[in-house]
Amino acid sequence: MFHRPSIAFRTTAFVVVVCAILLAIDGWNSWQSRSDQLEQMGVATSNLARAMAQQADDAIKKADTVLVGMVERVEHEGTEQADVARLRKVLATRVAELPQLDGLHIYDKDGNWVANSRPTQPENLNNANREYFVFHRTHEERGPHIGLPVKSRTTGRLLLPISRRINHADGSFAGVALATIHLDFFSKFYARQGPLRWCTRTEP
Fold this sequence. Notes:
This protein is α+β, with helices and mostly antiparallel strands. It contains four helices and seven strands; from the N terminus they run H-H-E-E-H-E-E-E-E-H-E. The protein has helices spanning 7-77, 81-97, 131-138, 183-190; strands at 101-108, 113-116, 145-146, 150-151, 158-167, 173-182, 201-202.
């Protein structure tokens, strides 16, 4: 003979079903909320990455614009003593205008210093063995070259080298124009994302 479930059983079953539905709704809401948060975090991360890349790209382009002018000036005006004296003043002015720059430098075909933006000319320093110098000496491309971050042997600061080849009138190698950018210029911008870690090498 068929027996209907007791009221107590039906009440308990009803409560269990309601609780299960409520738990399912709460789980769905939690999952949806997390999905929304993850999506927002993804958008924010993407926007920050674009801002960081744009900031770095702008800094490098400004430095390269200065290099273009340096190369044009040296190739057309030469590096006689009077020309170098004027060039040093121009380089110092450019560095003062662009806070990301550590220095601007001109090297001859043998890697010797011709001019730079510093108040005094370094002595007995030759950069013929530097990666960027070797690159330009062995490549005829006239575009900018972005080297690996290095530690300056004169200041100890971490720098990003940007360089261009200088040619003689016949197209042969005449030297290198170099701009160095402070890496801490970037790290200050990225500080809120934690410490900036670069794979660096020390200039000998």
